[in-house]
Design goal:
- It is a single chain.
- With 183 residues, this protein is α+β, with helices and mostly antiparallel strands.
- The chain has a single domain (22-181), classed as 2-Layer Sandwich (Beta Polymerase, domain 2).
- The protein is built from five helices and five strands; from the N terminus they run H-E-E-H-E-E-E-H-H-H.
- The chain has a five-stranded mixed β-sheet with strand order 1-2-5-4-3, with helices on both faces.
Length: 183
Amino acid sequence: MYSADMPDPLPHPVRIVDHDPDWTEKARHMAHLIKAFADPLVARVEHFGSTSVPGLAAKPTIDLMPIVDRAAVLDSLRPALEALGFEWHGEFGIAGRRFCTLEQDGKRLFHVHIYAKQSAEIPPHLIFRDYLRQHPDRARAYEAEKKRAAALHPEDSFAYNQEKGPWLEAELVKAMAWAEENT
């Protein structure tokens, strides 16, 4: 639950960089730490977002999704994440999610989105990741959209996300249809 003592992450500069093959290992390492610090609350941790798609240029911020068995334990993860250096932001605009950020030397390294396994927010993220991995042409189109949005809003990650939002919504419809056809 959000409270006033949980600071909102401020918008940060948007820098799109070439894909870094080390992102996968960094994600794996942090996922392991999260599971170790939050055991047995976390069932699994998914790497999603642009850094999880091989070859896709992205902001160098890794998105991780710890998944817990029950919504009642979401807030129980706060001490473990804070012990790892994360800043806890509560729901931060999405009911049923807990959002954390990790920065180092003024650079945003990780976004952590924690959900209970029954959350309807989980499948779209994972389906879109898998869709881009299976459709390199759509990943290239997404990369072009990200670069376009970043050029318009290089200093404001919130405006950048809003700018690319319509493209993402349209593409997510295609991704969901693809997933339906392939299940």
